[in-house]
Amino acid sequence: MSVPEVAFAIVAVVGSIAAIRMVTTKNVVHGALYLVVTLGTVGAVYLILAAEFVAWVQIVIYVGAIVVLLLFSLMLTKAPIGRAALDNQQRGLAAIVALGALIGLIVLIQGAFSDVEGTVRPTPTEAVGTQLFKHFVLPFEVVSILLLAALIGAIALARRDEP
Amino acid sequence: MIHLWLPLTFSAVLFTVGIYGVLARRNAVMVLMSIELMLNAVNVNLVAFSQILHDNLLNGQIFALFVITVAAAEIGIGLAIVILIYRNRETVNVDEINLLKW
User: Fold this and answer.
1) What is the tens place of the pLDDT at every residue in A46-60?
2) Nearest Cα residue to A64 out of B68, B27, B1
3) B53: domain CATH number?
4) Which residues of A touch B32 (CB under 8 A)?
5) Residue B73 lies in a domain
6) B-chain residues within 8 Å CB-CB of A12?
7) Do B9 and A79 touch (CB under 8 A)?
8) Which of B5, B14, B80 sits opposite A113 (nearest CB)?
9) Is residue B13 part of a domain?
10) Considering its fold, how many domains does chain B have in total?
11) Burial of A46 (0-12, 13-18, 19+ CB in 10 A)
């Protein structure tokens, strides 16, 4: 195994363990903090794959904004503690479905891509920006309208009605 | 050199953990967190294919950026709905919200 592969394996194991802890923890706030670890390791994976702009966007938007939003809504809603309060009765069935999907995906991946490898080339932010504003201008504008609509919708949903 | 199956396997693990979380958790905020996990798994796939197979147009990375943006919009609306439900029903457990269930 090469050096990037060893680094990747360490980061991936940490991220996977944090993800499993997130869905099995008894305390929702701990779950949100495990989510921070998982999202951070995904950012590190992007850095190992030499996609620096996506890595920083991941850190800023996910760890910086979305986790704060999730923590706020955990504080605003009553968060019970304990597995019985947090899990429903389908836990065994859900574990079977997830394990089956994992085994199927790993068999597929090993069958199709087990001998594909390549060196990663660093992509500077400039290249991503040029590509984004050269070939993806229309989707970019559509996504900005979508964000505006989501912003207005969230405000309209969450504000209290005037008496 | 990085083998392509390494990031793909990490992504598969994240996705299936997300499936388990969506199916097994009762708290609506935890369900939304698990959905974020699944979207992240898709992004890892996109960036891995783009970088290891040398996508000169960088389509994979730009799609990952769009997915992150749509995920941010989705979590904003989702949490607004969760807070609204909590205000009306005093609960965010998805198995107790059955008003529209036939």
Assistant:
1) 999 999 999 999 999
2) B68
3) 1.10.287.3510
4) 70
5) yes
6) 6-7, 9-10, 13
7) no
8) B5
9) no
10) 1
11) buried
Q: By C-alpha distance, which of B67, B68, B47, B71 is closest to B59?
A: B47
Nearest-angstrom CA–CA distance, A150 and A143: 10
A18 and chain B in contact, CB less than 8 A: no
Range of the domain at B94: 26-102
CB atoms B10 and A5 under 8 Å: no
- What's the complex ipTM? 0.91
pTM for the full predicted model: 0.92
Give pLDDT tens digits along chain B (102 positions): 889 999 999 999 999 999 999 999 888 999 999 999 999 999 999 999 999 998 888 999 999 999 999 999 999 999 999 999 998 888 888 888 888 877
Domain A3-88 is of which CATH architecture? Up-down Bundle (1.20)
> Could you tell me the residue ranges of all domains in chain A?
3-88, 124-163
Is residue B11 a part of any domain in this protein?
no
Rounded-to-integer distance, Cα A74 and Cα B30, Å = 9
Q: Which residues of B touch A124 (CB under 8 A)?
A: none
